[in-house]
Amino acid sequence: MQPRDLSDHVAYEAGRGIEEVARELGRDPSEFIKLASNENPHGPSPAAAVAIRETASSVSSYPKAAHADLTTAVADRWGVGDEQVWLANGGDGAIDYLHRAALEPADDVLVPTPGFAYYGMSSRFHHGDVREYELSRAADFAQEADAVLDVYDGERVIWLTSPHNPTGSTMSLTEIECLAEGTDEDTLVAVDEAYGEFADRDSAVALIEGRDGFDARDDVAVLRTFSKAYGLAGVRLGYAVVPAEWADAYARVNTPFAASELACRAGLAAIDDDEHVRRTVETARESRAYMRENIDTHVWESEGNFVLAAVGDATAVSDEMQERGVIVRDCSSFGLPGCVRITCGTEEETERAVETLNDVLDDLDVEPESTGESEDPDAEVADP
Ligand SMILES: *Cc1c(COP(=O)(O)O)cnc(C)c1O
Asked: Which sequence positions carry the modification called N6-(pyridoxal phosphate)lysine (predicted)?
């Protein structure tokens, strides 16, 4: 016997790890730095690391109190009711929960291209189909309601990523409101704010709750994660903030105890560790400014903890950088075969990445793309 027909399903391509690369190349792991998965260069919140150690002896129990306490802490942070917070196994788990709650078989979701692969994968798991709207490279991947509405055809869920992975662009709350306003009553606008902490933008939770001059809406949900700014990618903790009207659904769709005891305890410690987040955000801002300034090819403006650089042949450039000890993300699997994404590292890591990339561009004779904002945007051609 066989599993069901999975020919439409594709495997998720994660950024490559140091151990994996070192083993493959027969080299010592200490020769490498990894700037491929938007991880936190300062590690986890120290308070979270302590909490994880202290929790070790109680992991024989199912997480009940910790789950409830973290839900309340997250709800307090956003000023929403506890039942509006759907804790999950990473932000990815929250994507699944929103799909479980929203999709009937053969419902469609509308996702950005280039974009994060898991929206489409998750929709297919839940027997949904996937359509795409394009973020145009010629427009620097700007995110506007009209461009999405042009291709919108009654999909049940529309995914927005703000800041967007891998381009770093954002969408204003006014544009998100326009989009929600312009779509059917039964279309959920899901705003993935995995990188929200790094951006100079307010959260779309304001649209759900009707704050800052917006009317409250029941067709917007927000996704957040502890993986990036909080440095807890390895514990797998994220959540959705949903309208009060959606509150009942969680109990019916969640995998029991989806956020582990370790994850909940780590999250409780991390959510109060503002200093760690502040330092992380500051490092990312400095790093992305440095990369934009010093990389010898076009680097897009980014509100995330990464930048996207136009390098011609992304696979050749990322392979060669890896050979020289710097692991970055080849964006071919995101639908951008001419670009690499580089995570903001510490100052030292960032400098090494920039120097290595510039050397590789030089050695591979990559035609540099315009680097300045003031230059003619038409000069920015498609990948050779
Ligand atoms: C990292 C990321 C997530 C969530 O990742 P988790 O580790 O599952 O929390 C969600 N969306 C985007 C765009 C991301 O880059």
From this structure: 228
Residue owning the nearest CA to atom 1 of ligand 1? 194
* Residue from 141, 227, 239 to probe ligand 1 pocket by mutation (most atoms less than 8 Å from CB): 227
Asked whether residue 146 carries a pLDDT value surpassing 90, the answer given is yes
Alpha helical stretches, state H, the chain: 18-25, 46-55, 65-78, 90-102, 118-125, 145-151, 173-182, 205-209, 249-253, 261-271, 274-294, 314-323, 347-363
Same-domain status, 39 and 173 = no
Asked whether residue 129 falls in the same domain as residue 61, the answer is: yes
CB atoms closer than 10 angstroms to residue 295: 22
Pocket, ligand 1, Cβ cutoff 6 A: 90-92, 116, 161, 165, 192, 194, 225, 227-228, 233, 238
Give the residue, out of 225, 230, 305, 307, with the most ligand 1 atoms within 8 A of its beta carbon, to mutate for a pocket test. 225
Cis status, amide bond into 114, omega within 30 of 0: yes
Confidence tier at 372 by pLDDT (50, 70, 90): low
- CA quadruple 319, 325, 326, 329: dihedral positive or negative? positive
**Where does a domain end: 270, 303, 319?**
270
Whether residue 295 sits in one domain with residue 265 = no
pLDDT digits (tens, 9 = 90+) for 269-314: 999 999 999 999 999 999 999 999 999 999 999 999 999 999 999 9
How far, in Å, from the CA of 91 to the mean position of ligand 1?
Answer: 5
pLDDT tens digit sequence for 215-224: 999 999 999 9
pLDDT single digits (tens) 191-215: 999 999 999 999 999 999 999 999 9
Distance 118 CA to ligand 1 centre (A): 9
Our count of domains for the chain comes to 2
Residue 381 in any domain: the answer is no
